[in-house]
Structures are given as C-alpha cells and as structure tokens.
Amino acid sequence: MQLENKRRFYIEAKHTKYDLHIRTDYIWQAYSYSYSTQVRPQYEKVDFALLTDFEEFRFFDCTFPVKNHETLNNYCVLDWTFKDYIKNFDKLWEYFEKENVRNGSLDKLYISEKKIKENRIPPDRAFLKDLDDEKNGWRIKLAKDVKKYLSPDPSPKRRGEEAEAEFITQTVQLILDRFIFIKVLVDREIEEDYIEKIVNKLKSIKDKEEGIVYEECKDVFEQLDKTYNGSIFTRRTELDAVRVSNKVLLDVLKDFLSQNSRYNFKVIPIEILGTIYEQFLGKVVITTAKQAKIDYKPEVRKAGGVYYTPAYIVDYIVKKTVEEKLRNLALKGEVKIQDILEIKICDPACGSGSFLISAYSALIQWTLEYFRKKIESANVRTGLKPVLTKEEKTLVYLDNDGNIRLTSKIKRDILKSCIYGVDIDPQAVEVTKMSLSLKALENTNHYEVYNERTLFHTTIPPPLEGNIKCGNSLIGMDIYDGKLQLNDSVEKILKPFDWNSEFLVFKEKQGFDVVIGNPPYIHQRDNMINEIIIEYLKGKFISSNFRQNTYTLFVEKSLTLLNENGYFSFIIPNYFLSTDFDKKFRELLFTKNKVISILDVKNVFEQATVFCVIFVMQKGKPSNFISYFERKTFLPALLNNITDEKKFIPLENNDYKLSFGQITKKFKTIGDFFKTYMGIVPYRIGYGIPKQTKKLIQEKSYNSSKKENNHYLPYYTASDIGFFEIKRNKEFIKYGNNLAEPRNLNVFSDQRIVIQRIIALNPPRLKTNIFTDKAVVNSDLITIKPIKKEYEKFVLFLAAIVSSKYFGYLLYNNNINLQRSIYPKINMKTLLSIEIPDLLRIADDTLKKVSNIVDNTIELKRKLTNNISEPEKAQLLRKIKYFDDNLNSIVYQLYELTPEEIKIVEGKG
C-alpha cells in the first residue's frame, strides 16, 4: 500500500483455503521482506506487512529481528477474521483511512520494546551477529570445525598457530562468501535455490558419509563458476581441500534457506553488505593448540573497533569527484560511451569496496541517463519508436514496460575498464571483488545472464583479479634495493606493491582520473606502524619525517597516483589543519595542488572519537580561495544540499592556517609580550637516563605522595586545575634527566600563568591559573611567562583576558583541533597568534581593576574549598559570578565589541 511515493505496508494475499495462523511460512515471507527494508533510507522503509485471504486479516509490526517461525505471531498487532470487520470498523477507519494514514495513524500500531522484551535491531546488525557472534555465529562454528579436521602434523604452509589461524580465516570466509553470493542470486531470482536443492537432496540420503555435504556444495560452486567467474567460485586447491562436518555445514546452510532466513537481498542493497563486511573484516580467527576463537585485529582493537564510512559520506565524495569529472567531460562536448570507459577510478585502501561500489554505480547511472536522453531526443525528432543500432543493442534495451535498461555487457565493460582498488588485507580484496560482482548483477534477470553468456561467451560478471589487488599502497618494490634487511615474516607484513607494473592503465594514462577513499588512521605513537616501514618511508613523503600517520601518507601517495587535472577526495582526521608537525604537509596541499573544498563533518563515525573533514582536491594550479563548510546540526540531507558556504580560506603571506569569519581588531598578539612552554612528559619507554622500562612506567616509579628529598617537586596535572583554582598538592615527582622529557626548571618558577590544553566547552573557555611557587606541570598544561621583566606587571591582566568568554570564542574559532568535542587540545602556536589589546596602552586604572578581579577570584575560590555551610557557599558563588561578569564586560569593551557581537559570543545571537 503506497501513499505519496512512500510504501506504508506490504500486502501478501493468499487463497482462503489456507489457515494463516498455521501456515507460518506465508507470514515469514511477508515479514522477512518488510524487515529487510529496515536498512534502506527512511522513505524506503516498510515497517508493516498485511497477510490476508479476506477471511483473515493479520497485520504485523516488521521492525524486529524475528528469530524463527514459532515466534512470528508475537508480532501480530491486528488479528481479525471477516466476522470482526463490522465490529471493528471504527478501528479500520482510524488506522487505514487515507487521510489518517497520511497523518501517521499507523504509528499507533508499533509494538513496545518493553512488551516484546526485545530491541529493534536493523537487518545489517542482525546479519553481522549471525555471521560473527563469538559463540553461535556462522564463522566460529565453521572455524572450530575446520580446525578439528586439520592434520595434527600440518604441512609447512600451515605450520604454526599464526599460519593455521590465517588459513582457517581464509577458508571460512571463502565458504561464507559463496553462500552469501548464492543467497543474493536466489533472492533476486537470478538463479534457482541451490542451497535448498542441496538440503533436499541430502534428506533422501540415509547414511551420509562424513564430508558429503561439502562435496555437494563444491559441485554447485563448480557449476556456478562457469557463469559467475571473478574468483568467488573458482576452485582454490588448498582451501577447498579442507573437511567440514555434515552437521555444522547443514546447520549453516539451513540458516540461508529462504523459508528460514529473515533477510531478503532483493531489498537489501549490496552497499549494505559492504558495511556489514567492514565490521566482519575487523576480526580474524585466532587459534591455539586446542581451540579456535574470533578476536579483533590488533590495529582494530587499538582503535576501539571498526568504524565504517556512512553511505551518505561515500556518496558525497563520489558526487564531488566522479560526477564532477563527468560534468567536466560534458562541458567539452558530447560524451561518448568510450569516454566513460576511459575514466579510471582508484581507491588505494579499498576495504570492503564501498567507495568503488558507489563510483561504479555513478558511472552506471550516468550511462543509463545518457541513453535515455539520446533515445528520447530521437523520439522527438522522428516521432517514431526508438530504433537502436546493432551496436547499441549490445549496450541497452527496452524492457516489457518500455523502460531503458543497460545490458550486462556494458555494465561488465564499465566495471572492468574503470574501477581499480588496492588493499593490504587479502580478505578485504575478496570482499570487494564479490561486492562489485554482485553490483554488476543488479537489475539483471536469469534470462539476461544466460543470454549474455551464450552471445558473448564470457562469464558474468568479469574476473576482477586485474582490477582489485592485494598489496601495500605505500610500500614500493624499491624496498628490496638492499638498504633494509627483510625476512619472510617482515615481508609478509610489508606486501610491497608496484603501481606501474600492477596497473598498466595507470602507467599508460600517467595516473588515475579519480582517487577516493577513507584511508586507515594509524599513528606512529600507537606503536602500530612497523619500524621497517617507518625507516623506509623517511624521505619518501613530506609527512613521513616526524610522527608518521597513515592518513597523511595516503594523501601524499594518492596525489602521486593522479593524472593532470585528476580529482581526489578523502575523509580524514582534521588534526593536519593545525598541528605544527604537519606544516610541510599543509604547504604541499595548499601550494602545489588545487584544494577545492573542505567539509567539516566532525564526529561522523558512530562511537568513534576521531573528528574528520572531507577534503576535495584537483591536481593542478593552486586556488587562491578554498570553500570551507561547517555543519551545525549534522544530517545526511545536508550533504546533498549545502547552502551554508560559511567561510573562505585566503592563502596569503605563506600562512596556511584557516582564516575564520570573525575579523578581530588589529591589536597586538600574546606572542608580542609572552612565551608559552609545554609541560613535562614524565614517562616514555626508552627515554630518560637511565632509559625507562615498561615496568618502571607501570609503577610510576618517580611519583610520590610526599617530598622524598630535594629532587622531588610538587607535580600537577590537568585534573588538578580549575578556573583560578588549584587543588591542594597531593603529589610530587622526582625531577631531572630521569624523566622522559623534562624542561628547563626556570619554566616552573616565578609568577606565571598556567592553562589547561583541553578547552572547556559550552561556551569554550580556558581553565586559567596563577602559579607563584616552584611546581612542575605535565604536558596537558601550558605555562605562559613574560618575555621581558617589564612585562611581569601584565601577568594577572593577561590571565583575565585568557580566561574570558571572548578569548575562548576567538581561540576555538581559530584552531580546528578545538572543534573536536572529545579532548580538544590547544595549539600553542595558535595561542600566541591570538590578538589582544596592546598591553602598553592599557590605562593604569584598568590594569589595576582587572588585576584585582583576578586576585579576588583566586581568594574566593580558595575559600570555597574550606568546610563552609551551604548559605556561605551560595554567597561565595554569587560573588565569583559577579567578578566573572565584570571581567567579561571589561574584555568586551577592550575588544570594542558591539551588542550584537556580544550576543554571538554569549551564544544568544
């Protein structure tokens, strides 16, 4: 039932001879189809299903992941027979009358999660759980079974727990990939249900020889390989030689049967399968002598899990690159199909293939639109039905409803000619090839598949071994030039890759037309980058000489992969926009290439703490202006219709920081009067004299709760500091060369300002304090000291300004790092560049008044820590607020802000 282009519920109509309570297979059919739409965009979801033969009227809430047929009736919200229609006519009208439905009447029929004692879990998460549940998932069942049958005296290829685990991981994924591929073919009615045929055939065999189930499966795989090449069904001598028990394999197979599976891939997009696999690939099989289990890869565990790229982010990047490339082609004149086939698109860290699938889809849609316009134009000119040439009939046809369809041939040609990818994980490569193959089969039927095979004598889809390859995009074959010693285990990690020899089109075209993706976010400081890789990369990339991280390395590498005027876009962490050690990297981006736009998407990844930007570039002459977009309330729809082109970034005077909208008055800067110092880093493995060990760090051997001797100094961290308040000292640290990164002791003496590097938000303000005694602070705190003795009188005055609302506003909007809502740390260089009133021109009475406010605030905050009554505390807080309001008012006057500007700073504008 559809209303205003939105399907409200599916109707499954049956003959009256069937009992719709007993025939749960009919309920299951309607339910699974509706439930599978829950992964689609909101306007495509269908939450309800009606099962009826007129004699019975059964209406189901299909938003829950039903486990089996027996529980289906729990989700029935209306259960009537024809005898109830008159009695319940008011309810029928209330729920199903057209205007009532338009106004949301069906929303009243959702089952409460409390009532059903179950959560609404969308199909993608439910499917991932079926795949990867650590106790009952398909992967662990198969992994344990495969391990059981492995020889106790393994061949050299499998020797060792690590090699055995890798072998089992590959074997299990291959089996599951094949089952899933068949499931998609069956649900989309491209192939008959081979899984059902296997299960039914085995039912008739009484005495089943162990292993016969897998042998039957391999016969099916071999048969399908003739039509669906691309490595998925191709026989793998070693992997296919494993044994799998009948019971385990049948248990898994039965879950894929249409009558048992709650997933219908006729309505689940292939793109969703890719996001499921991104999570799946984050784990591997781990084996010991006695068992197999599933665990996260080390780099994934370090990152706190897998964070797949949301579909709307992928589509946005494709829109800004692939579609922009197509538009530019169109501006030059009529675009031929051959022009499309000449476009080369690459993802150098393709993962499960989500970016490549979206890019492929964009090319398919453009080609379809090209033919539609061409045929419609011919109709207008001739007034006749479209007549296709012999060549065009191999590319496009009209279906029975007169709709224009692309043949499998052109979809195959576009995939084979245009789409390329690399990933270091061989399992990811397999998934990408499988996903692209399934995408090529979209909107295809059984007749077309076999007609194409007969006509063109080729497999459908094409083999993709030449398009999607396994290797390390950052490591070239020159690593073998003798500078570094490599053994087998290291070489296995490195997986060097030669772009020129692996992709001939890359060499012929002198690069790709489009490079897109979401590279891995791995930092050298996390000890997750191999030392040999670190050594090799030094000097290869601008961003490799200090604190290497993979995403900037991938950006640099990608720029070398582009041909002239090629398009590039990644989603990457925003740190590079402000960190000192990325200055050379920023120079490369902004002065050597044309940066088109930066879109700040902040914390777009679910449960992740990384804050990102989408970077769009073109290889060519640098631009003087870059569009910068900042999302306020992030909704997927905003990416398709961005109207808030809030800022432009002028690139002048070799200054590569972002210039934001608020124009400050031309005063002095903090750096004209003061200098900043980072606090100490007490512990780091291999640093200090003597070199620190892991045990020493774990025990915090240099920390003490008392002053052991004169080498011990009071020690403060960020948690000890508030707004003009310092917690009573409870910790000391042994100060000297024993520490990982000590500072000159002069930094920690005399009157000085100490601020937290992590800015307080809502509104943004700096926790600021005055220190006078000798005391040490850690690197989460910044010390500010005057550069001349005559500037010492300004310490309290600057502390007041730095702690003010307006200063926090300025700092926050001039430091991209601070726009991360989790641990936003201050950049010292940016801090020094913030403009302040010229201190030498401040009137003495103003200087004295502001200094008194700071002194009074410190004293009031000190009194708050005493044991006082609630009325006394309330009175102190009133005084503190009074002084704080006065301080902010004076700062507004010093910066000459208008009432409207003050409202903006206060968050009221």
Provide the helix percentage: 25-40%
CATH architecture of the largest domain: Alpha-Beta Complex
Biggest sheet overview? 9 strands, mixed
**Fraction in beta strands:** 5-15%
Please count the beta strands (DSSP E, at least 2 residues each): 31
> Within the largest sheet, what's the order of strands?
13-12-9-14-15-17-16-18-19
Shape: globular
CATH superfamily of the largest domain: DNA methylase specificity domains
> What integer value in Å does the Rg equal?
33 Å
The tally of domains stands at 5
Main CATH class of the largest domain = Alpha Beta
CATH topology of the largest domain: Adenine-n6-DNA-methyltransferase TaqI, Chain A, domain 2
Question: What does it look like?
Answer:
Mean pLDDT is 83; it is low at 153-159 and 631-666. The strands form 9 sheets. The protein has a 9-stranded mixed sheet with strand order 13-12-9-14-15-17-16-18-19, with helices on both faces. A 4-stranded mixed sheet has the order 3-4-5-6, covered by helices on one side. The protein is α+β, with helices and mostly antiparallel strands and 909 residues long. Helix content is 39%, strand content 15%. It starts with a strand and ends with a helix. It is globular and about 95 Å long. It has 5 domains: 2-116, no CATH class; 123-296, no CATH class; 311-349 and 473-648, Rossmann fold, CATH 3.40.50.150; 355-417 and 440-463, no CATH class; 668-905, Adenine-n6-DNA-methyltransferase TaqI, Chain A, domain 2 (Alpha-Beta Complex). The longest helix is centred in the middle third of the chain and has 29 residues, at 354-382.
